Amino acid sequence: MTEQEILEQIEALNKQLEEIRMQGADAGLLIDEAERELQHQEDLQRIRGFRMIDDDFMNVVFDDNVEGTELLLRIILDNPTINVNSVKTQRVMKNLLGRDVWLDIDANDDTGKEYNIEIQRADKGAERKRARYHSSIKDAHLLKAGDDFSKLPESYVIFITENDVMKGGLPIYFIERVITNTGEPFNDGEHIVYVNGEDKNSSTELGRLMHDFYCTDADDMHFKQLADRVRYFKENEEGVKRMCATLEKMRDETAKKAAEQTKVSIAIDMIKEGRLSLEEIAKYSKLTIDKVKALA
């Protein structure tokens, strides 16, 4: 179905929905059915506009996509020998003493190197201290109790940013620790890389890769490994179903978060008023007593 056909169907469904609503309360089931179909058509339109620079789409394109992640790392790090073992998107790394970290792309290769690739459209999301924090949390999960520090693997935190957040006009920035009074590299195995998504120079592999990150149409992309994956989720019936299911799941999660935030706001208001015990607040707000105690 073409984009124009989808838009025409959305317009027709909106008109149909308005006509059903005018029939009154007895049309409830028809309204629900029409609203579901309208949501589906809007999802199809949204999927057509997705690019790999968009978090939601990037997650599905690269999840378990060893070949695509391998291509990504080989180009960014200019190393054709990288062989990726495994890759997962949206992996949560818990920090029992502080803030958890959600890794956009978490991968490792056959030499034991670890990679965290973050896609950031907003400059604020690519803060330098965020890169430092991601690197430290990842390190904390790579050693078991009693392991020697020498077993800590080499690691890369790579930010692909929509804008040139480093403001240097370069396509890519490599950040390494050095011994400042000698200028020698510290060689601790930690690497931080920023890729400038603004640079889409078609004469370089990296520029062509960044061009592909902004394409909505797989036919416009340079790299077949990525184009095939994008085409699957945008044009293949099974792939589109998976994308629609992902969007539905995201809506459910957003609704749950909103409901939870409402409960928290109610509990905070009750705590401020000071009329009820914490146990009563937990009962009426539907929060756990531990959560209410933490809020208090």
Question: Would you give an account of this structure?
Answer:
49% of the residues lie in helices and 16% in strands. The protein is an alpha/beta fold and 296 residues long. It has 3 domains: 47 residues; 181 residues, no CATH class; 41 residues, no CATH class. The strands form 2 sheets. A 6-stranded mixed sheet has the order 1-2-3-4-8-5, sandwiched between helices. Strands 6-7 form a two-stranded antiparallel sheet. α7 crosses α8 and α9 packs across α10. The model has no long low-confidence stretch (mean pLDDT 86).
Give the number of DSSP strands. 8
How much strand?
15-25%
Uncertain regions spanning at least 5 consecutive residues = none
Largest sheet geometry = 6 strands, mixed
Please identify the structural class as seen in this structure. Answer: alpha/beta
Distance between the termini: 54 Å
The neighbouring-strand order within the major sheet is 1-2-3-4-8-5
Measured as a percent range, the helix fraction is: 40-55%
Round the Cα radius of gyration to an integer and report it.
Answer: 24 Å
Average residue pLDDT: 86
Features:
296 residues; alpha/beta; six-stranded mixed beta sheet; two-stranded antiparallel ribbon; 8 strands; globular
